[in-house]
Design brief:
The chain has 270 residues and is an all-alpha fold. The chain has nine helices and no strands.
């Protein structure tokens, strides 16, 4: 009986962390979509990545208050992902698939907790450190300096390409719905949440694919300056023929993912 009570209590804690965290994660993606549109129309200021989104939120006096709320929410999301990495996805039948899901949660926890730390530094009046692209290039330079560094960076590019493909497949096949309990959503919204998820995962996969190409090119040329993160990928896309239209589509996809997160915050299994 005590074990059952503890399990229910832990589930409620995970649910609370997940809902708060996913809502804040959705807000970050909405701002990234907005920043991507600004790049498309030639008025980009902040970097169009997660750090740029956080900086955009905190750029005004009222935004400082929102930024502290975001800090709490992102830490909640990170802690929730840690719980999911440890004991989550019990509804997944195959051990291999469950393990992959847990590894993904662990990776997201690292990324989001880093973003939460960056947001906390900005909210406290600090600089927050370097940009996402600069950090990506610095890490790539360190890897290139290793023995067989070009091979190592090439393998990183392949891993990122794998993430890109997985995201697109997840969107197209709608497998993300396996983690949602659609009955928890208001009647009539299930179809829209699914559509938003499809658009969001496909858009994120496209951008990850461009990042993989940038990293791969850095490996081929042994030039860390060719690497870049989300912002560099979006600007690379914008520079292509018809890139503005493609970038607007990707921006819409990121915004769709942001809205999807609000629905998933309510319906995600724990």
């Amino acid at each position: 009986m005590a074990g059952r009570t503890r399990q229910v209590k832990n589930s409620k804690v995970a649910q609370g962390l997940g809902r708060a965290g996913m809502a804040c994660f959705g807000l970050v993606h909405l701002i990234v979509g907005y920043l991507a549109v600004r790049i498309a129309v030639g008025s980009g200021g902040q970097e169009a990545d997660q750090r740029g989104a956080v900086a955009e939120i905190g750029s005004t006096a009222p935004g400082k208050v929102v930024l502290w709320v975001l800090v709490v929410g992102l830490f909640a999301y990170g802690l929730w992902q840690i719980l999911m990495a440890a004991k989550g996805y019990h509804w997944i039948g195959k051990d291999r698939d469950r393990t992959l899901k847990r590894v993904g949660s662990a990776a997201r926890a690292v990324v989001v907790l880093g973003l939460a730390g960056y947001a906390a530094s900005l909210a406290a009046g600090g600089g927050g450190g370097g940009s996402g692209d600069a950090q990506q290039q610095e890490l790539t330079a360190k890897l290139l300096a290793l023995p067989a560094g070009k091979i190592v960076v090439g393998l990183v590019a392949l891993v990122v390409a794998g993430v890109a493909i997985a995201s697109i497949v997840k969107g197209v096949r709608r497998t993300f719905t396996e983690d949602l309990d659609m009955h928890d959503l208001p009647k009539g919204t299930q179809r829209w949440v699914t559509r938003l998820g499809v658009a969001g995962y496909v858009a994120k996969g496209v951008v990850f694919g461009i990042i993989a190409v940038l990293i791969g090119f850095a490996a081929f040329t042994a030039d860390a300056g060719q690497a870049g993160g989300l912002d560099a990928a979006l600007r690379t896309l914008a520079a292509q023929p018809f890139g503005v239209f493609a970038l607007v589509a990707v921006a819409a996809g990121f915004a769709a993912f942001g809205v999807y997160c609000f629905g998933a915050a309510r319906a995600h299994k724990h």
